[in-house]
Amino acid sequence: GEMARQVAHEVKNPLTPIKLSVQHVQRAYNDRRDDFGEILERNAEAMLREIDRLAEIASSFSRLGAPEAAGMPIESVSLPEVVTEVLTLYQGGQGSVRFDADVPKDLPDVRARRSEVKEVLVNLLENARAAMESGGTVRITAGRSAERVLLAVQDDGPGIDDQLLARVFEPHFSTRSTGTGLGLAIVRRLVESWGGEVTLSSRIGEGTSVTLRLDVHVPGEGGPPSDGAAV
After folding, report:
1. 39 CB neighbour count, 10 Å cutoff
2. Which of 2, 84, 130, 164 fits a 20 to 30 Å CA distance from 220?
3. How many CB atoms lie within 10 A of CB 200?
4. Cross-strand pairs, 150
5. How does pLDDT run across 9-31, given as a tens digit for each residue?
6. In angstroms, rounded to a whole number, what is the distance separating the alpha carbons of residues 152 and 166?
7. Which residues contact 14 (CB under 8 A, 6 or more apart)?
8. Is the CB of residue 6 less than 8 Å from the CB of residue 65?
């Protein structure tokens, strides 16, 4: 079906660069190149990156096929903690894209699932990074709004035009040829499974912003009651 075709297509993307890298290393070895060590190093890094991408694609598809949040309980999640954790992965020099965050330490915890919040953030940062081929800045901001906490990921990339904007949450849609294009479909599904909302706004030439609106976690709501009494 459509899903199987999509998987096949996504998996083929990283396979080409992996194959080219292997051939390059073989040739360099057979030619007894003086700089073989460097060539091996560079190509091994490239291959490992593509292999990580394959792993991501695999987990994206298994998520999309999985039943809604397979019964995992909603928990209390600290956004400042998760943002710090995810940014640590990204701030180790990602070429021309800078990542920064302005997330108040005293934000109330939100109703979500910690591992999924992490997955959502990584998805949004990957999308933002991929959008900015010539570099730029990705900002994560957060704040309180009435009963909700808002978390936004903004890039100053090229933006998405109005025709495409309407389709960004479709499962097989991607504004670029690489990448799973599943990112936002999964993001929306996860965020809505916590009772939150996700919106996207974009202006050509100025960039794109994805905003999550999440409920504040009220102790005693969701999750087991603290005193062990029957609910």
Report:
1. 18
2. 84
3. 18
4. 143, 213
5. 777 777 888 888 899 999 999 99
6. 19
7. 50, 51, 53, 54, 57
8. no
d(CA 104, CA 107): 6
> How does the average pLDDT of the chain come out, rounded?
82
Q: Convert 125-161 to b/e letters by CB count within 10 Å (16 or more is b).
A: bbbbbbbbeeebebbbbbeeeeebbebbbbbbbbbbe
| Distance from C-alpha of 117 to C-alpha of 79, rounded to nearest angstrom | 8
71 confidence band (pLDDT: 50, 70, 90): low
What one-letter code names the amino acid at 190? L
Of the chain, the percentage scoring pLDDT greater than 90 comes to 36
Read off the DSSP letter of residue 147.
Answer: T
Q: Convert the pLDDT of each residue in 90-128 to its tens digit.
A: 766 557 888 899 999 999 999 999 888 988 898 888 888
As a whole number of angstroms, the distance between CA 70 and CA 60 comes to 15
* DSSP count for the chain of H helices, then E strands: 6, 7
Inform me whether the pLDDT recorded for 226 exceeds 80. no
